[in-house]
Amino acid sequence: MTEMSDNLLDVSHVRRTFPRGGGEELLVLDDVNLVLRPGEIVGLLGRSGAGKSTLLRLIAGLARPQGGSLSYMGAPIEGPAPGVAMVFQGFALFPWLTVLENVQLGLEALGLPQTEIRTRALAAIDLIGLDGYESAYPRELSGGMRQRVGFARAVVVHPNILLMDEPFSSLDVLTAENLRTDLIELWGSGKLPTKGIILVTHNIEEAVLMCDRVLLFSSNPGRVSSEIKIDLPQPRDRTTPAFEDYVDQIYVEMTARRVERMRQAQAAGSAGIALPLTHVSPNQVSGLVEALAVAPYNGKADLPDIAYEQELEVDELFPVAEAMQLLRLADVEGGDITLTHMGKRFADSELNERKEIFSRALMSHVPLAAHIRRVLDERTSHSAPKTRFLDELEDHMAEDAAEETLKTVVSWARFGELFSYDDDAALFSLENPT
Amino acid sequence: MKILPPVSIEARRLLPSRWDMLAAVLVLAFIILFADASRSLVAPLSSVTGTALNLDPALLPGYAARTAFRMLLAMGLSLVFTLAYANWAAKSPRAGKLLVPLLDVLQSVPILSFLSVTVVWFLSLSPGRVFGAELACVFAIFTSQAWNMAFSLYQSLRTVPDELAEAGRMLGLNAWSRFWRIEAPFGTPSLVWNMMVSMSGGWFFVTLSEAISVGKTTIALPGIGSYIAVAIAQQNFAAVIYAIIAMLVVILIYDQLLFRPLVAWADRFRIGDDQEDEAPESWALTMYRRSRLLDLMTTPFEHMMRWSYRWQPPSFGMRAALREADSRIADLVWYAILAALGSYAAFRIWDFAHVNLTWGDLGQAVGLGFITMARVAVLIALVSLIWTPIGIYVGLRPRLTRIVQPVAQFLAAFPANILFPLAVSLIVMFRLNPDVWLSPLIVLGTQWYILFNVIAGASVMPKELRDASDNFGVRGWLWWRKVALPCVFPYYLTGAIAATGGSWNASIVAEVASWGANTLHAHGLGAYIADAVQSGDFRHVVLGTAVMSFFVVVLNRIIWQPLYWLAERKYRLT
């Protein structure tokens, strides 16, 4: 027990569920363990919906786990603890308060004397590079400056732990990079009045750039699938081979598991409808197939490369790549994506033939699409209400996952002209307007 | 800014739940209890009874000041009520289940019914003095203002962005300071808008609430409302004109000194980046901001608030929430109390109904309800047909909008019932059928809600959509059908819901209108209630009120709510 008190944060065997209709529960975090030691930046990396943000909120004391324990400097976390501050994805600034007032708010809640509040707030504003903006309102600032206010507001309370929930993801590429560099510089120089940082992100390069350790999360339910120690000195250079190796390694880890799960679902036949689908439009699939088919890839590409060159975020690339894998238009393996024979044919075809290929792929490789088509074929009316399938899906997944899965299948089936769907009537049918 | 209609739009179900039933039963039983009590109390006569008001115009400023002060007092009370009620409903899941339908029902109860059953009780509080009558009057104004304000704040509290709420908790703000620094500011723009609507509602019923006439109790409190009532009774046309002018001046002063500064000030609490429309301005706000005196006066208050933010343990709110979620016993006690209360209320209603009322009475009231419903429906349809195209025309022309919009808002604030005597004299002069010709009075004041909401909708219509329809040569009827009308539909709906609610309430003053000795009656539920109040017949007041509430609540549920969600899903442009 003595060694535990050295850690800033101990998370052990944490389990978190959300209630679901019918008294059932949905498991979003399962047996998660995490330790944060002084002087560390730990990254939580995973796809959206992997429970990273949920874990961050548990650490912040904004929610409670159903099982396991969390302790901050040796004491159990039972609510928002002083000494734990958070930077939000959407900034969460109060639009009716000026920059200075936003920064002062947390100090006022601590009940400090007015003069100290002012000096500390001004110091934080100075540190984060917001000098001159004290009396501006958030809506007058650009996104980057707003997030600086978010940082200033968090560090002004001199937190032992700084929690960051995808802090750069709503900024443009240049601004985000600028802010990351500034932050790393402050951290490296020891000027940041904080002892440890937890960074939630879905951006692989960002994690490798900033973190000392990265925990990879797998989805459904959220688990820590592996931990990668980034052994590179700061400041890091994205172009070095060592950096790229780390990025590659994470890509491989993050795709392998999903692809394996998909194969199992396909092999399971009609039981495979339990596979949650992420919404990807057929146009995105076509676009990536086309890009892959021509030079410089000629049918095969390294995932990090194509993400970089096509300007795709991981959260955008992975679902498309997986959809291609699911439809057997491509193989995703070892951080590479390779077009299959069918994928190449798809790339060479005209629209009508593409639709046909798509339709056949749906029937043979997407259990849910085949299932819906079969039900529609069997019914004399050739139609079925949305709830018929939604209820079925909700036996296997959360409500919004079921909605998204169904929405995805609808959009794919529309492209393949496999069946049609009327949103006003919430009705699946085989009829198309003639 | 998005304005929500003042009916509960959270529940997306058609059928009434147990909670709706309980709410209806409780309100009805409350009215019956008061009505019963009123009958047993002897109405005390006081100095204000019977003495006719002096119609000397020189006295008008004094009367106006008294009326203005009553309105302000009622507004203050409404605000206090709103803060407490909305917080309770939004923060406690247990209480919220009942409080929200309760608000729906309370809102549907005509103001005159509240007044008629409570006035005697208020008078009994201070026998022989004006104080009780003043209380009754302020309470009546309060009932015309409070409900939609409470709805507005409740709906704001429920939609505070998650991140802002979480940021507040992470910064260690306690529940009290989270409310004042996050939730209240967030709800302010919509609350201010609803306060303006409420104020109009108060003006509309100022005559009723000051010149109280319930059974044998007749009171005329000094004020503009009583002045008008006396002027109408004496057929003094000049006096009516003076009163209208005085009222316009008071409304204008309120607008310039209170509401315009409030709107301009509330603008900073808007969420979002859109800066496209110019920020509202107010000379009065600038004056307040620069005033040293005001600064001196508010500073101690500010210090007090600042001090209060640290006053409770930081985790107070969360612990309470957790406790509530956990405790089964508290749940049990709460439901047991409600069940007991509900049963008692139901018993009172049954007891009252089976002694005092017959099935024939009910049939008559429901029949009259259908007549009033038809009247409201036809007239709302009619004014929609007139004002929607005009609103769209105006809304698409920014320069015109800047002129027409404030006028429409002012007209909505102006109590149209002052003009009723004019209508009565015309109907009498031309020997017209009151059943038909009194009807337009129902929408005289409420039609403006439709107009200014449609203008607002048309003025935010995306430029790209207009360009696209021009580009494809979409013109004429096709343009109205496929472009303009769908674009303003959500806004129209908000206006129409407010207008319909107001019209039901207005039917009470519109279906019976008088000028001197000429009193015209139209058939309808409004006239039924108004007559019952006039003659002090509480049985029929209660029955009429119950039937009207039923009509309003049911229509909201089966027509307006589904339409609202259709508009949200299909026509919302964001």
Structural write-up:
The complex is a heterodimer of chains A (434) and B (574). By secondary structure, chain A is of the alpha/beta class. Chain A has 2 domains: 3-250, 3-Layer(aba) Sandwich (Rossmann fold), CATH 3.40.50; 282-429, Arc Repressor Mutant, subunit A. Helices cover 44% and strands 19% of the residues of chain A. Chain A has helices at 52-60, 99-109, 114-128, 143-155, 173-189, 204-210, 241-267, 282-293, 303-309, 314-326, 341-348, 351-365, 367-378, 386-394, 399-416, and strands at 9-19, 25-36, 41-45, 67-72, 75-76, 84-87, 161-165, 196-201, 213-218, 223-229, 300-302, 330-333, 336-339, 383-385, 420-422, 427-429. Chain A has a 6-stranded mixed β-sheet, sandwiched between helices. In chain A, strand 15 and strand 16 form a beta hairpin. The longest helix of chain A is centred in the middle third of the chain and has 27 residues, at 241-267. A two-stranded antiparallel sheet of chain B has the order 1-2. In chain B, helix 20 (447-459) runs antiparallel to helix 22 (476-510) and helix 22 packs parallel to helix 23. In chain B, 76% of the residues lie in helices and 3% in strands. Chain B has 574 residues and is an all-alpha fold. Chain B has a domain at 357-574: MetI-like (MetI-like fold, Orthogonal Bundle), CATH 1.10.3720. In chain B, strand 3 (512-515) and strand 4 form a beta hairpin. Chain B is globular and about 60 Å long. Chain A binds chain B through residues 57, 60-62, 64, 78-80, 82, 84-86, 88-96, 105-106, 108-111, 137, 139, 153, 157, and chain B through 161, 163-164, 166-167, 169-174, 177, 181-182, 185, 268-273, 275, 306, 309-310, 314-315, 318-319, 322.
